[in-house]
Amino acid sequence: MMAKAALGLLAVLALCYLAICVLMYVQQRRLMYFPQFTRGDAAETDLELDRGDAVLRGWIVNPHQTDAVLYFGGNAERIEDNRDDLAAWLPARSSYLLAYRGYGASDGSPSEAALLADALALYDEVRRRHPHGRIALIGRSLGSGIASHVAAHRDVERLVLVTPFDNLAAVAQGHYRWLPVRLLLRDRYDSVARLARYDGPLLVLRAGNDAVIPPRHTDRLIASWHRTPTVVDFPQAGHNDIHLQPGYGEALARFLR
């Protein structure tokens, strides 16, 4: 009787575990993307990119400069909060901040394939606007995976990655050790594979006290690259406050000057 009861309990636990895995698989994008913290009014934006199935909206800082920089933000980041800093740090570049689909005042729903395609479309639009200028990229957190993709497929002068990761599946597996995340995850953002195709100057801004993307994932990305990047370490910085650290803006300005 006890053996049957134990087997019955194990069966119930197995079914519960399987149900959790199925739920995580079905709902994974709701658990991965957090656009609800970024929603805004379309009337307050000054940049639009029509993608056919969605209109993406954002902002241009320091317009009409010859050179440009594209900023790809973090998962729950209100990218418009960077406008004043970018205007001060990079006065000789036009900065483009476009909210991901489903974020800010942009239409649609986020997915890796859509965000990567949108990022390439943004680059192409900026290239059209700056035919003779240099185009650099800044990617923070989730945006580091997107910026790495653009750098792998377009002519990018310089690339800045802020709190980047090796690949999102590895990061997620570290947070959910009890789930087969590597098997379940659809949006993987494999920055190691994509960065291998980029051969230009690279700046990595590393947060030493990052609990969201532990520094080991940044270190693995750095170690995987075929060249030696410029690394500026902020040992006391967390994931969400690295931009407040002394020297952050100076590092960006110096590298992108």
From TrEMBL:
Molecular-function GO term, any one: hydrolase activity
Entry-linked Gene3D superfamilies: alpha/beta hydrolase (3.40.50.1820)
Keyword Magnesium found: no
Domain of life of the organism encoding this protein: Bacteria
Keyword Transmembrane: no
Swiss-Prot/TrEMBL keywords: Hydrolase
UniProt domain Serine aminopeptidase S33: residue ranges: 94-168
UniProt cross-references to InterPro entries, sorted A to Z: AB_hydrolase_fold (IPR029058), Hydrolase_4 (IPR022742)
PANTHER family in UniProt: ALPHA/BETA HYDROLASE DOMAIN-CONTAINING PROTEIN, PROTEIN ABHD13
Protein name: Alpha/beta hydrolase
Species this chain originates from: Luteimonas salinilitoris
UniProt lineage: Bacteria, Pseudomonadati, Pseudomonadota, Gammaproteobacteria, Lysobacterales
